[in-house]
Structure formats: structure tokens, C-alpha cells
Design goal:
The chain is mainly alpha-helical. The protein is 37% helix and 8% strand. The protein has a 3-stranded antiparallel sheet with strand order 1-2-3, with no helix packed on it. The longest helix is centred in the first third of the chain and has 15 residues. It is globular.
């Protein structure tokens, strides 16, 4: 689902989508509810700004602060 979304909606190449999938696997194991409280990050790609903004605030750009595949894509 993630690869299809990236290629159809974000115009990623298959190589780019593969790279993004490798990051998601490493960061969260594809778990949209994954949280790292120490880093203040959460979600599939471990966006910053979940519990602190030390690493920026990517979550401020999300449509809602909901740990779900739909929101994170």
C-alpha cells in the first residue's frame, strides 16, 4: 500500500519507493503507531514533533495527530 501510494500520488519511481520502504522498515517495522518517546518521534517514518520538537515538528504539517496509515501517507 505504501509503495503504491508513493508511486501513484507522489510520483516516486520504483527505486525511490523502495528506498522509502527501507526507511519505514528500519524506523518502525511498518507500524504506524510506533513511538520513540526519547526522540519525540512517531509513526511509520518516525516523524519529529510527536512528544517534543528537538528534531523539528513534522507532525505540525499532518492533517491530524493520529497515528494511522491514512494520516501518515
Amino acid at each position: 500500500d505504501i509503495a503504491n501510494y508513493l508511486m501513484s500520488k507522489e510520483r516516486f519511481s520504483i527505486q525511490g519507493a523502495s528506498g522509502a520502504l527501507a526507511v519505514a522498515e528500519r524506523e518502525s517495522g511498518f507500524d504506524p503507531e510506533a513511538e520513540n518517546i526519547a526522540g519525540g518521534v512517531a509513526g511509520i517514518f518516525q516523524w519529529s514533533g510527536w512528544s517534543n520538537t528537538v528534531n523539528g515538528n513534522r507532525w505540525s504539517k499532518a492533517e491530524s495527530r493520529t497515528l494511522s496509515m491514512d494520516v501518515e501517507l
